[in-house]
Amino acid sequence: MALPRIIGAETEYGLMVQHDPEFDSIATSLILVNSYNTDQSLKLLWDYDQEDPLVDARGFELDDEYDVPDHHDNMAINKILPNGARFYVDHAHPEFSTPECTNVLDLIRYERAGDRILNLSRIGANQLLPSGRTIVVYKNNSDHKGNSYGYHENYLLDRRTPFQTIVERFMPYLVSRQIFCGAGKVGVENGTDYVPFQISQRADFFETEIGLDTMVKRPIINTRDEPHANRDRYRRLHVIIGDANMSEFTTYLKVGTALVVLHMIEDGFLTNPLVLRNPVRALRDISHDTTCTLAVPLKDGTKMTAIAMQRWYHAAALQYLAQHPDCPPTYPAIVAEWGTVLERLAQDPMQLYREIDWVMKLHLITNYMARRGSGWDDPRIAMMDLQYHDIRPEKGLYYVLERSGGARRMLTDDSIIQAMDNPPEDTRAYFRGQCLKKFKNQIFGVNWDSISFNLGDGPIKRIMMDEPTRGTKQHVQQLLDRSETAADLVANLVT
Fold it and tell me: Pick from 435, 415, 319, 448: which is nearest to 103 by CA?
């Protein structure tokens, strides 16, 4: 049986400043990150010594350098939050990385907590701007000026599974899954053939099948080998091809089905895998077909639609569940929803106007055009596309749907609010978050797999956390309760 799954997500947000002719995205991101209402007296560093983004899963390391910010810049661009998350400036965007989670509903909960944190930061930052200027933040993947920014999923896998096996068996799933996890987009970019509306925000920007880059020559499967955990035991699959979703149900299917497929791959269950002739071309062609009926070529000379490819994986998942009654208890519900969505996509994608982001957006736009008698050249259509992703609850079109019952929910608002300040209790994020609350003035630096304490006399003391399933409430609560200071904590860890 595959290892216990640890998952996380990273969202880069788009932003603009209304009525600012000299808009600077980096400066605005800095203001935004530093406006979140955390303890501004904290002087925490992100521990870049624990970062190694140039190691490739294919067995080599790039002979290159990456910039590490100095002490002052490190504190300015990084916020480590008491819920175990990281909120920081990544290039020219604010980014929120969820804490480590063990299940898809927790991941959605912390991702949506991140949306609320961004909105609170936006409110605070707007108070620092000149009169008449307003920061607007979008949870999307394109500025419609040729630039794309990412939403990344992270799945901790067993290192014994060969990376090439993951590539071969996961590629067709990733290419075809956009039919139920695309965020929808008006128009095209990156020189692709014109369609008025497409399924995915990101599909136009991927140019190769496999590689280490995330900003140029984007690969469908990223090869970064940076597990943030015990390297001998784990690898972290860094999935950069997904859209940033507003719909909770869309995220549920996107991450939930990926978990099931990756478990099947690790257990050697997927034999005779599908092989696409040209995955990059298939990715774009599928995105450009909102009927979901286009068949793309396989390497064996046959053709399959995206729905047929997903049905292939879904049929395997049903067999897998039947033969593995000890699988995670969340999987049967995920697989059942997966099958229902595929049936409805095959009948008429527009049936999913309450569940799937791209259908929800297209439904809004086509209804608007019908009422107004307008076409795709109406400039308000592009504005609606963008406004769907506006994170302001009072302005975003997704939130209009949510309030009116037009969006299927998976969570309660109370559970999301709780996630803004409290870490998951069943991963090492609990230890990280509780240490930030209890020993905040004695913490020197933090990374996903370590915490460093300044105990006053002597060197900085780094505690390694290379096992993501340790540091849970069950494991460490008694330790935390009997440790009044960080020095006590370090001493108690030794004894």
Answer: 415
